[in-house]
Amino acid sequence: MNLQQTIAAVRPIDGESVEAARRRFSQIAIPLGSLGLLEDAVLQLAGVRRTARPAIDKRAAVVFCADNGVVARGVTQCGQEITAVVAENMGRGASTVCLMAKKIGMDVFPVDIGVARDVAGEKIVRRKIRYGTADMTQGPAMTREEAVRAVETGIALAEARADEGYELLCAGEMGIGNTTTSAAVAAALLGVPAEAVTGRGAGLSSDGLRRKIDAVRTALSVNLPDKDDPIGVLAKVGGLDIAGMAGLYLGGAARGLPVVLDGVIACAAALLAARLCPAARDYMLASHRSAEPAGRLLLDALGMQPFLAAGMRLGEGTGAVAAVALLDLALAAYNGMPSFDEIGMEAYTPLV
Fold this sequence. Notes:
Structural class: alpha/beta
Radius of gyration: 20 Å
Mean pLDDT: 95
Strand order of the largest sheet: 3-2-1-4-5-6
Distance between the termini: 49 Å
Strand content: 5-15%
C-alpha cells in the first residue's frame, strides 16, 4: 500500500479485547495491578491483536541503515564509514542487536535504505533510496519524493513481515549522525530550540556538542520546517532511517501488529508517524527512555511511559529488544497463572 492507503487502513484497537484481558488480570492469583506498566502493555497487546490471549512468539527487528550528510559539520566522534561497517556486521549476525535478539528468539532484518556506499552481505535487505542524505545545514536533506519513498519502504517491509506471520515488530537504526537529524526532527515537531533536544550522542566532547547544536539550529533556520507538515519536516531535516522507521510503525499498525519503539531516534520516527496517523500511536509500545535530552520530550509528546530507564544509548533497536524480553515475562504470568478459584483463595478487591 502507499502512504495514504496505509493511513486509511489503520483501525482503532479493539476495546472488547482490552476489557477481556483486564477481566483475566482480575481473576488470576496476583495482586491487582501488580505488574504495573507490563500489565498495561499486555492490555494494549490484546487490543492490538484483537484477542484476550495475544501471542508475540514470532517477532522481528527491522534495522534501517543510512548515512547523513550533516556529518560534514563535525557533529560526530567517528566517520561516516562506520555506518557501512556496522551494517555489514549485522548482515553477519555480529552486531549487538543481533546477539541480543538471538537470545530471545527474534529475527533481525538489516536494511540498506541509504548507506553512503554499497554494503556486502546476503542477509542485508537492499532498499537504497539514495547514497546518504544531503547536508541539512545547506538545504533539504532529501526531496519530498524521496522522503515518501523511504516511508513507503518501511510500510512495505512491515507488510512483508506480516505476510510471513510475524506477530510483533521492532524498528532499529544505524547511521552515523542520526542523533543530529533526530534532534532536528524533534525540535521542528515540538517547537523547541535546538539546545533543548540535542545531546552528546555517541560520546561527543563539549566542543563537538556546541557544533552539533549549531548544526541543528542552522538546519532549522535554513529549511524552516513546518510542524504541521510531517513529510516536509522529514524531507528537510530528517534521515532515511527515520523515514523507514516511521513507515514500519504505520505499516505495522495497518496490519494489526504491535510495534515496540527503541530510543530517541525511534521516538522521533514514532512522533512523525503519529502526526501522520494519530490512530497508529495506539499500536506503539515504548521500551526505554533514551539518555538523549529529546528522549523524555518525545515520549511526553507521544503520551508514553517506557518500561526501562537504564540510560541506554546504543541504538540498533537494542532497547526495544530488551523490552520484548520483559513482555515475554509478563505474558508468561498472564497466560500461566492459575485463578483465585483454582487455588482456593479469595480474590483481591479494589481499595478506595
